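ok here's the first one, seq then struct tokens
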Amino acid sequence: ACRYLFNGTRVPYTVVLLVIGIFLGSLEYGTKHNLGKLGHGIRIWNGINPDLLLAVFLPVLLFESSFSMDVHQIKRCMGQMVLLAGPGVLISTFCLGALIKLTFPYNWDWKTSLLLGGLLGATDPVAVVALLKELGASKKMTTLIDGESLMNDGVSVVVFQLFFKMVMGHNSDWGSIIKFLVQNSFGAVGIGLAFGIASVFWLKFIFNDTVAQITVTLSASYFAYYTAQEWAGVSGILTVMILGMFFAAFARTAFKGDSHQSLHHFWEMAAYIANTLVFILSGVIIAESVLSGQTISYKGNSWSFLFLLYLYVQLSRCVVVGVLYPLLCRSGYGLDWKESIILTWSGLRGAVSLSLALSVKQSSGNSYLSSDTGTRFLFLTGGIVFLTLVVNGSTTQLLLHLLRMDTLTATKKRILEYTKFEMMKTALKAFENLGDDEELGSADWPTVIRHISSLKDLEGRQVNPHDGYEAGSLDPTNIMDIRIRFLNGVQAAYWEMLDDGRITQCTANVLMQSVDEALDLVSTSSLSDWRGLEPRVHFPNYYKFLQSKIIPHKLVTHLIVERLESACYISSAFLRAHRIARQQLHIFLGNSNIASTVINESEVEGEEAKQFLEDVRDSFPQVLSVLKTRQVTHYVLNHLNGYIKNLEKVGLLEGKEVSHLHDVVQSDLKKLLRHPPSLKLPNVDDLITSNPLLKDRSSFRSLAIGETDA
């Protein structure tokens, strides 16, 4: 109900959940147990072990967040993330610890003050990720804040554990501190990579089994967290973050078509459920900490020190961003002053901080940590979580608006006009097709328009907006925007080719990476995605010598064929994707100057790929033939799969029949992927003589590079 009611408002969904939790907790702990079984349930949830709370919810939330991040952008922003998560956490911890020690009247020693500073020193990814996704911040900004929050959280937990051990009387010399930090950091990275490698290797043996694939990702995240946190004694948060990023880098193309969609929906739903429960529970814990600890929280000075601590938290965040700003501007994608303001203001705290405060409270009541100190920790942490979520979370969208970071550029507005014009044309075509039939007669177009509000503003002003790009069309901003859209179309074509079996997973990863690198350069140069592929695609002269009769065919196959196959896959996929993207751009923008400019850049990019395929065709035509054979076989099997599904859909086949036929086709697909047609190297003249189809040079060329349809 809250998600529905507050959709489209400036109040984030997570803030509403926190208020609901506070309301439920206040009802139970402020009404003398009048809620019956509901109150009993609230008390059971409130009494959850903090370690169990983290172990249940964090693996889902952290894996979903890190797995959905853009790997290329992570690489570019890694320097900024490390700065904010390393020196940034230390600066924040010591700033907060010093301010608490010097201004708070609780007579805490330096270790205890720094413990609270470490607990509050890092932003919480659970809160930040939920907020950013809801507000629709830019992809670059989301990646930076999301990645920084994930790394921040892992580092801050390690810092918290370090000071917690010191407060509880453990050895605190420099040698033990460095050993603890190194073990936690490198141990977490090692375990995350180990689980990532094992899981990705396992996924290679799972074929078209969506349930098994999702189960591997889910179980890997929980097993990795548990192994790191409970068995190895290192940071489970850093472990799951490394695991998710490893999956994003090496396993994204392992999920194709329906499996990819199912995986996305599963993790989206799992994260939604976990977020909902975590923030409601956080609200209950905050209410209990305020209402149950009356001796602490109802004193006026405690409330005033809570608000003072909130100011300290914001001040420490300003200091971190301010001190690191010169370095942040010079690394990654850079950082302007507007983005630095959002980065400062989006330092939310959430369930992780609360869980750590709960663990402090549970461990209090001894000579090292008094029960009053534990209660104060929970009260102050709960208050900070509430204030950052309610104040910062609710005003971030307003701040984005004031800084004009949520407005559309002139180029994007023009694209919207293009799209609206095409929408009207599409609606007219649909009306022509469906507006009149022999059973029901004709439809009334004005009434149709009245019920489609998105088309109301378009009627009566159907001027072709393609003309809008003719005047001043070569503006650099416009060209950059169209290049980005063109490259997005190229990447979408690669995904489609992966689903159709035209390219392998390894080839897809290489092609996707080339597009990501080209997207970074659209503002300074023409299309350049071939630049990232060029080192993998070249035809040295000694290949032709190896093809001579002097060298044994088996040795030739071993030396060059596998490398040529990969290069041919890359070249043919590159040419096909660019051809598809050019066609789509021409359909959308017509013959405008800007479209012609980008299309010409694309054609120039493809020259080397065409030349490479020509060289292969002249020296090793069998390589192209085998690649096309594989593609056609995969295409035919996919087509048969779709045909069987369609027969089931129209009711001509029943469940058992569908299952039998589907298993047969899937078995053939599995055999094709694991044992693809291999290349044999007969004499070229014998090959052409024995196959009349190949006598025609143009037919052979067409077959080889796949210009004709299967």
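and now the second one, same deal
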Amino acid sequence: DRQTLVAVLQFLRRSNLRESEEILRREARLLGDDLGGNVATVATSSPGVAAVAAVPPGKGETRGDCGAGPSSRRESREVGSPCAARCLGGSPFLSEQLLLLTGAVAVGGAVVVEDQPDVSAVLSAYNQQGDPTLYEEYYSGLKHFIECSLDCHRAELSQLFYPLFVHMYLELVYNQHESEAKSFFERFHGDQECYYQDDLRVLSSLTKKEHMKGNETMLDFRTSKFVLRISRDSYQLLKRHLQEKQNNQIWNIVQEHLYIDIFDGMPRSKQQIDAMVGSLAGEAKREANKAKVFFGLLKEPEFDVPLDDEDEEGENEEGKPKKKKPKKDNVGSKSKKQDPNAPPQNRIPLPELKDSDKLDKVMNMKEAARRVRLGPECLPSICFYTFLNAYQGLTAVDITDDSSMIVGGFADSTVRVWSVTPKKLRSVKTAADLSLIDKESDDVLERIMDEKTASELKILYGHSGPVYGTSFSPDRNYLLSCSEDGTVRLWSLQTFTCLVGYKGHNYPVWDTQFSPYGYYFVSGGHDRVARLWATDHYQPLRIFAGHLADVTCTRFHPNSNYIATGSADRTIRLWDVLNGNCVRIFTGHKGPIHSLAFSPNGRFLATGATDGRVLLWDIGHGLMVGELKGHTDTVYALRFSRDGEILASGSMDNTVRLWDAVKAFEDLETDDFTTATGHINLPENSQDLLLGTYMTKSTPVIHLHFTRRNLLLAAGAYSSQ
């Protein structure tokens, strides 16, 4: 809109903001000095900029304002209308705003700042020179206002304390007011919520401008807007207060560094807010959890189950239950119909079933027919594998789906595989011996194995640092391990040698896991990204970037179309394998996430973290639906029983706890209002969901696994302290 642009330029000239005028003129490619009617035509790339400047004062200053048009909420890094609201208010910070605009790219009429910011450009936003001596007064004034406001608004507005505290402190440090910064920090850091203590420790070490340049945490805080979800009434109250007090410094920070996601309706209670906050960048925007997710299960391939002779006698009276498909989901197992929430069968290419896979499925069905139905009245037996004398330091465990092998990753960089059945582990014979075998014989698969190599334990050498994650392939032919050395290795369980080293992460890799269909696997590490790989590609197929800290754990959804990642930024993200998009962001944990488990029917996700809480999420609606409190230390292991009736959690507090999953997920409040506002009402007490607590003598639990018949296996290394 050329007229508006001209009006803004005239206003800038009247206000003696020559520099800003020049920048805007350059940006809009306006030539000539005449600001009358005959201004040269505006170049086509300017609509984004013009749109930014053309917002009348007081309109749309909230980034997440429900009334704003779609373009104003397109991207958290969008330089939205706020700067316009301020341009027209004649604020002295205008030149700064427009400087920010010059680093922006116009995309379809919206100005989106590029994702990977140059450090100095990012920090330059702190150039705003307020009077350093007044910062404490500003902050305590706002604090007093919030503490004196009505209870219903106080809980919501208290969310502002932490992000404002951080940004004001950083602004003081950046502008080299070191003594004021120190005094500001000492006076107010004690007021912040306890779950921000670790972040504040990092912050307290940033005392000079130079420190800020290389600090990643700092850069994250600057580049990703802190998200606050506040009701419209509370927001209006805050806005009125800041405008009356003419508290520009705080208002600028709110505009510049916070994303306020406004909703209509009742303000949330302290308990509702506490359940959802605590991550590095505040809550997730509601927009982030709106995308459709196909959480249903894929249809199983159909093939007949041959009946063995002994099965004929034993099982026929029951009406041949084995002919049924024992789908993990106890509801969907009866019908062969496609689940309405399932992704299309060919949405992502999955490997063909080999004959050996079909045999394994048949075995699985037979086992499933003898499966114990668990419930509050029928709890599973727990078999605990304790690693004794694990002086090498046990760092990871996995158990094969058929519970025949167990693997341990150790801090001395070895991977050790044990057979937990009487059948010993054997390698394939040498090439010379293989050439002598009759390939047509029925027992050729037995003959190729070398009896001389049979042993209960195989040690795999290859990594050059502690091994943090291990995962067996579903067909038990391969094993993955990931390590501090930055590689993921694929081992053959036929030859017990390393087949491939996947190099992509430059830093330690914390976790890796095979897809439930094999072939694909995921890894996550200190470089803050998760990578999707296929066993036959040495480069990753997808890179999932978005977490603000290490990706500490990874999990495939049962239908293999999605991957969940947990991070030290205290959020969980769900990624779409097909296009690499992030389709869910879950906030609520108060510490780094260390365990993830999908329910067998694919609808729910359970997550555990260093805060000792287990949170339950409804994937379809993108909502937290439960909180299980009881553990007193990091929850390192979570697993649903095969039918999804029971959730088992294992922790560093040396206990395994069993929870009633059926009860936790029934009567869910997932009406439209809850989904729209994120108002969740968690029961006060999760004790009625706790079915049992089982102590070990002195063994932290780092892995859990339900056998095909619902026996619970747990594993950990005995610690003598």
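notes on #2: The mean pLDDT is 78. Residues 355-369 form the longest helix (15 residues).
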